[in-house]
């Protein structure tokens, strides 16, 4: 049980504001594989299923429900030795990891105990398909009203995909106050490995809160950040501590990288070690090797690292380096590091990093989905330009000249349940009425800032991605193009994506830079309007909205962002 002991070692290094262990050994939490037959040398197998199963149409019926109880609280933390206020799930940042097996049902009960900040909340399960379960997508103002302090909400969804992802708050900037954690769905894999090291969160961090920094962002520019964290910990001046990862020579390790930053695009690497990449977001891919991996905000990569460098040194740096043109300035940019050690006790590495050029690349050219798919002919085809605007003296982002502003008290789903068919312009709605048609969307920009574009409720196909003007001469890749849920819109360029309208609901598409989300860089698809009400529990929605509305007016809280 090497993975287990490593997880315990790692968890002791996490910032833990309470005395309680953030990782308690209950059977529910243990990352086990219920399915026998998947061993270190047969990772492509999964009982009666395998890596060859088309998981988009076939899902194991495990009959198992994995249930979690999360409590959100205001906390004081010092993940790099400097104390500040923050918000946490069950007292730790990152919060507890959700484990499930492919095919399980996952139920998460969330209690909002943010009594000091008086913040509402919602929990979004990033990248989870939510097949016909739109109401469990956890986006305030789209699929629910915020959950008021003192109130609870229950989310339920089927794990139809497998791999690595994360959950995070979708209320204001709360995800970057600390309300986030990993999700691991066990299943087959496209390459073998010995041990699973679990989630490795890459994030940026400041000694002021993101709520405090937002004023500066809204005044026109991203604020400079103090630091970054690897799995919730780092050093700053003489304080804090680094994550230490123990390697045994000859063993191969799976790591599940998540970029949970508010505004940092990282290049990730481990000195002298090669990364074998086996999944991008929740899509298993043909394995490829790289030394320096680009990971944009909201993206995930599963990588296998073989401990084959013991003859070079005992200790190596693991690095997450913010790329300047797609990240807030960072005062500790060259020191967001962890230690990989072959020794019994880690000591400070003296290794040099791999060569790289500062840039905002996406891994697109390397990504070949293992389950091959062909994109059909467009039924809906549109182009939308990302731009900026100044509203009431504040900086906003726009798509198609609209900066999204949706109302906490009147989420899209509630409007649909109530039979309202007209939406305000600022709701930024695109209606997709036709079942299963292929939707093509080009997002382009003349501004020199890249954006990670994330779509809810679907994995999208990357048809084209490049710099310069998008025009009909750009060729679209429809033959098994990369598929994922978050891809980069390059600076002064375009991103063309496609997906099938196979999932009724109100689905958000937005830039995953925290400031930009709050500044309105978003639109929503109202997909198959006529079928949405039938898959929605209108009473539960209205109950929680009524609790929220009473709270919001009682506390005179004024919404001052996009609402998502
Ligand atoms: C990172 O933190 C998560 C959550 O506590 C834990 O499960 C995981 O094992 C940690 N990863 C490493 C590499 O220590
Ligand atoms: C998604 O849900 C629909 C409606 O219940 C169902 O027909 C379809 O099979 C589901 N997809 C998968 C992969 O289970
Ligand atoms: C989180 O905290 C809740 C309430 O305190 C507790 O019931 C639950 O077991 C904890 N869950 C995890 C995964 O730590
Ligand atoms: C959430 O709490 C933070 C910290 O107290 C505060 O700055 C912010 O205004 C609150 N946001 C909302 C939307 O209530
Ligand atoms: C380790 O990596 C550094 C930087 O890439 C390189 O200069 C050095 O030669 C490598 N050492 C060995 C023994 O491969
Ligand atoms: C863009 O905005 C115009 C004017 O509001 C609207 O007619 C059009 O449908 C919008 N297009 C998209 C793709 O949102
Ligand atoms: C429908 O929505 C529009 C735009 O949000 C709003 O102005 C109108 O009052 C709503 N109508 C009903 C009947 O709720
Ligand atoms: Cu953006």
Characterise this structure.
The protein is globular and about 65 Å long. Helix content is 9%, strand content 37%. It has a 6-stranded mixed β-sheet. With 564 residues, the chain is mainly beta. The model is unreliable at 1-33 (pLDDT under 50). The chain has a domain at 378-553: Immunoglobulin-like. The protein binds 2-acetamido-2-deoxy-beta-D-glucopyranose (7 copies) and copper (II) ion (CU). One 2-acetamido-2-deoxy-beta-D-glucopyranose (NAG) is lined by residues 57, 59, 131-132, 160. One 2-acetamido-2-deoxy-beta-D-glucopyranose is lined by residues 271-272, 312, 352, 354. Belongs to the multicopper oxidase family. It catalyses: 4 hydroquinone + O2 = 4 benzosemiquinone + 2 H2O. One of its GO terms (biological process) is lignin catabolic process.
Let me know the largest β-sheet. Answer: 6 strands, mixed
Cα-atom Rg, whole angstroms?
A: 22 Å
Strand content: 35-45%
Shape: globular
CATH topology title of one domain: Immunoglobulin-like
- What is the strand tally? 34
CATH superfamily of one domain: Cupredoxins -  blue copper proteins
How does CATH name the architecture of one domain?
A: Sandwich
> At the first level of CATH, what is the class of one domain?
Mainly Beta
Average pLDDT taken over every residue:
93
List all distinct small molecules, including ions and cofactors, that are bound in this structure.
2-acetamido-2-deoxy-beta-D-glucopyranose, copper (II) ion
Distance between the termini: 41 Å
Number of helices: 6
Strands of the largest sheet, in order across it? 12-11-16-21-18-19
Q: Which structural class matches the secondary elements?
A: mainly beta
Question: Share of helix among residues?
Answer: under 10%
Low-confidence stretches: 1-33
